[in-house]
Write a structure and sequence with these properties.
3 helices; 2 domains; 35% strand; 28% helix; alpha+beta; single chain; Elongation Factor Tu (Ef-tu), domain 3
C-alpha cells in the first residue's frame, strides 16, 4: 500500500472515505467534510472504546518455565492446572537462561492474560483447580 502524503504532512489513508481535499473548498464542501470527519471520528471513538473496554481485566507479568525453545514472542501460551486451562497469555518477550549441567529455564514476559477472567467465569471454586498440578503448553 502506497502512502500518499499531501497538504501539511497528513497522510490520505487516515482520512475518512469520500473526504475531499482542496486548496480552497467551497462552503458546501467544508460542511460536507466537517460532517464526514465528525461521523468518522465518532465511529472510530466508539470502536476503540468497545475494543479496549476489558483492558482492566487483562493481566501482565513474568512467567518462568522449564526451558522451551519453541516459545517465541507473538505467540499465546496456555497455563494448564489440574487438567483444565487456567488462562492464556500473549508472549511479549522471551529470555532463555542456560547453565551447563544445572538448568535451562525460559522467562516469558506476558500480557493480555485471561486467567482472572477465566476464574470469574468458573463454575467451581478456583482453589481446587489451582492446587492440583499442571504446567504450560
Amino acid at each position: 500500500m502506497a502512502l500518499t502524503d499531501t497538504h501539511g504532512g497528513f497522510p490520505d489513508h487516515l482520512l475518512p472515505k469520500d473526504y475531499s481535499r482542496g486548496d480552497a473548498p467551497t462552503i458546501n464542501g467544508q460542511e460536507t467534510n466537517t460532517n464526514l470527519c465528525k461521523d468518522w471520528s465518532g465511529k472510530r471513538r466508539t470502536l476503540l472504546a468497545r475494543i479496549n473496554r476489558d483492558n482492566v481485566l487483562f493481566e501482565k507479568g513474568t512467567i518462568v518455565v522449564r526451558g522451551n525453545e519453541k516459545i517465541k514472542p507473538g505467540t499465546y501460551v496456555s497455563i494448564i492446572r489440574g487438567g483444565k486451562e487456567f488462562g492464556k497469555f500473549y508472549v511479549v518477550k522471551v529470555t532463555h537462561a542456560f547453565t551447563p549441567y544445572r538448568s535451562y529455564v525460559t522467562t516469558l514476559q506476558v500480557g493480555r492474560g485471561t486467567s482472572y477472567i477465566t476464574r470469574l467465569q468458573a463454575d467451581t471454586s478456583p482453589y481446587y483447580r489451582e492446587i492440583s498440578g499442571g504446567g504450560v503448553r
